[in-house]
Write a structure and sequence with these properties.
The chain has 243 residues and is mainly α. Helices cover 78% and strands 0% of the residues. Residues 92-104 have low confidence and may be disordered.
């Protein structure tokens, strides 16, 4: 059993390195408290790997991954647009409290991270790796090892995100996070609807959506900056001489 746990841990940890799930963990760590992200990743890992070992060990069949991938793509794109909405021009002064809202509303942040991770992992290559391991090994050991490996990879990304986030302005973090989520969503959508483009094609074409969103955001910021009135200079008060 220990051998199977170590095998599953190593396979999932290596598979997660550089995967979109780890990049998502890093991005979420820039926006939310680290313990919220880690707890949501842990719950999502427990659920998705339980499904994987159940399908691999008991059913030996695959889930409708195309439909799940479409939901995942829609979720990622929606999270990206919602994040970019916070950095639109005109939302600075009066909406500072809203910009900090994701940091303070623990419940909503938890469910955002949980749903995004759960949908992103369903049908991912790591899930298929868990399914393959469960067909030939004890499902309990595979489940424990795969959950530990996935959480360890996410924890590493969170550590990097927390360290880097201390030196980056909040607006820059929000913009980068939103664009990254749009990219992940676009790549997932292309991989599902146009599998003929291949992995490299999806990676390249997926950059079109965040590039377009970034260009629109840049134009809006320039227009807002051009319309910002200059601070009025108070006229000098005339000096009155005493009689």
């Amino acid at each position: 059993m220990i051998t199977t746990i170590l095998l599953s841990f190593g396979a999932l940890f290596l598979a997660e390195l550089g995967d979109k799930s780890q990049l998502m963990a890093l991005t979420f760590a820039l926006r939310y408290r680290w313990w919220i992200v880690l707890s949501a990743i842990t719950v999502a890992s427990i659920l998705v790997n339980l499904i994987a070992v159940g399908v691999g060990h008991f059913l030996g069949a695959a889930l409708p991954t195309d439909l799940i991938s479409l939901f995942a793509a829609a979720t990622l794109i929606a999270v990206g647009l919602w994040t970019l909405r916070e950095v639109l021009p005109g939302r600075t002064g009066e909406d500072d409290a809203e910009a900090a809202a994701p940091q303070t509303t623990s419940r909503s942040a938890f469910f955002v991270v949980l749903s995004a991770f759960l949908l992103a992992e369903l049908g991912d290559r790591t899930m298929f790796a868990t399914m393959a391991l469960a067909t030939k090994n004890g499902w309990v050991a595979v489940w424990i090892g795969s959950v530990a490996g996935m959480v360890a990879a996410g924890g590493l990304a969170i550590l990097i995100g927390v360290t880097v986030g201390k030196h980056i302005p909040e607006r820059t973090i929000a913009t980068a996070s939103g664009l990254l989520f749009l990219y992940f969503g676009a790549v997932t959508l292309l991989g599902t609807l146009a599998p003929g483009v291949g992995t490299l094609g999806a990676v390249a074409l997926g950059a079109v959506l965040p590039a377009a969103a970034g260009a629109v955001l840049l134009v809006l910021r320039r227009r807002a900056f051009a319309r910002t009135p200059e601070r009025a200079v108070a006229p000098e008060q005339p000096e009155f001489e005493l009689p």
